[in-house]
Amino acid sequence: MSAAVPYLQKLRKPQLAELAEITDLRNHEDYNKPELVLALDQHLQANRSIFATDKRLANYYSRLATRSRGVSSPAKRDLKQEVTPSSDGVGVTRRRTTRLKEESVPTPRPRHRAAPLPPSPAIVTDAIDRQSAEIRRSISEAWTGSGVEERSSALRATLSSAKAIQVIALLLEAASLIYELLPLRYLTTIPAVRALHTPPYPIKVPDLFVLVDGVFWAPISLWLLTSLVLPLLAAYFFNFRLNSASRGKGGGGASSFDPLSFNLVKALVSYFVYRREFDFFGTFVFATMHKVDMAVPGQWRGTVAGAVIGIVGTLYEEILRRG
């Protein structure tokens, strides 16, 4: 029991109930006034760091801060001397001691001490919010420091063009053709590991000796001619952007190669070579043309489809540039 309990005892029960509601004291409606005084005193002491700044509780905490004074002091005894005559005429002095008057202090009845109350929901919610904010701040700083956002923005800017689509299509065709032309040769086998329950795994490597054979270079030469050399020549000499830039209609300087001409010529050449079997006047045999056609994803239709996508992307960029 603290030194501020007398202050709480002087308050009425509605006033105590109001303080209990202010400080989120649970189940205060079930207490009578003495129990409410003790429970409220314990609750305010346990959460002093939270409610000490509340002006409505200033009277309580000001009394709590003062030290309790001693209540006991030595009692004064009054001694009275009474002289009574004796039978022989000699005065006998009798000392009569007065009874010590002590202030009767009522013994408080044993009361039920309330168990320590858990923190209020508001305190728990504030703690959770602070922890969540700290975690979000740490994650945000880690994400910003990693540089992923900047790299993804740069990659997005690079891929957001018709030229990037054409390069990706060419790389896909070249990778498929090389995979078809370079056979895999058996090298060794990784034995099975019983402890890991793994089966034996054969290792195969590309046969690089095929690079000195015409079987490899004939299809490569045909693909380079139909997908790069002829389209680039047409894009250089038939550059529609060149005259547009010279008249001042273009948004910027003209490039050396026109992507529209590149894709148009690539689609036409691929159709005539792989579909109509044009062998460049006997330069390439049918087996070479068939091997290239089968190696490219989608065969000649895939090549033409990639060129059409490049044409659409080029026209869309030109519309946006002029708009």
TrEMBL record:
* Residue numbers spanned by region Disordered: 67-122
Q: Give the UniProt entry's GO cellular component terms.
A: membrane
Q: Where are the membrane-spanning stretches?
A: 216-238
Q: Which UniProt keywords apply?
A: Membrane, Transmembrane, Transmembrane helix
Please indicate which superkingdom the organism of origin belongs to.
Answer: Eukaryota
What PANTHER family does the entry give? GLUTATHIONE TRANSFERASE 3
The protein's name in its UniProt record:
Uncharacterized protein
